[in-house]
Amino acid sequence: MWIGSVDAIAVVAVRGSDLVGFALLNRDELALCYVAPEALYQGVGKGLLRAIESLALSRGVSALRLDSTRTARDFYARNGFSVSGPVQVWAGLEGAPMVKHLTAEPSPLPAGCR
Ligand SMILES: CC(C)(COP(=O)(O)OP(=O)(O)OC[C@H]1O[C@@H](n2cnc3c(N)ncnc32)[C@H](O)[C@@H]1OP(=O)(O)O)[C@@H](O)C(=O)NCCC(=O)NCCS
Predict the structure, then answer these.
(1) Which ligand 1 atom is the nearest neighbour of the CA of 42?
(2) Taking 80 as the threshold, does the pLDDT of residue 112 lie above it?
């Protein structure tokens, strides 16, 4: 449903012919952000996040929301997000609501994102 939403916009990270990352902006929410295991901890996630923030700004979003998995919470905190409410459990998975107030001017998409 998220991917098919008319309001959603996807960003992918590619390395050669391989898709190594995928993120989805749905209105003011970062709905999905996933990096392939072989590409973890090499800056792909940060690049996806920068691209999503840039797209969100260009669409007039001033506060970008997300529900973070437990494992990704530190990643988002390091990238400017703050916990904005109590942890929710959905389908057995914990999600911590987080928000980042966007103030910078939109920047070009990082290399490798389109
Ligand atoms: C969260 C996620 C998107 C981050 O992607 P990533 O490409 O690994 O992120 P980056 O490489 O940009 O940044 C990772 C950081 O961890 C650091 N790191 C390096 N090795 C590490 C290790 N072995 N373990 C943990 N962190 C490590 C990196 O140096 C970097 O630090 P920095 O932010 O201070 O620069 C990715 O881990 C992921 O797909 N997780 C599983 C799915 C998930 O939970 N998604 C979130 C849904 S809300």
Answers:
(1) 11
(2) no
The protein residue whose alpha carbon is closest to atom 22 in ligand 1 is: 41
In whole angstroms, what is the distance from residue 37 CA to residue 101 CA? 29
Global pTM reads: 0.88
Residue nearest atom 24 in ligand 1 by C-alpha distance = 41
Domains with residue ranges and CATH for the chain: 8-101 (3.40.630.30)
Residue nearest to atom 20 of ligand 1 (CA): 41
How many A from CA of 40 to the centre of ligand 1? 6
Mean pLDDT, the chain, integer: 92
Rounded mean pLDDT of 92-108?
84
Task: Tell the residue number behind the tokens 């916009």, with chain if given.
Answer: 9
Give the DSSP H/E element, type plus range, for residue 52: helix 44-58
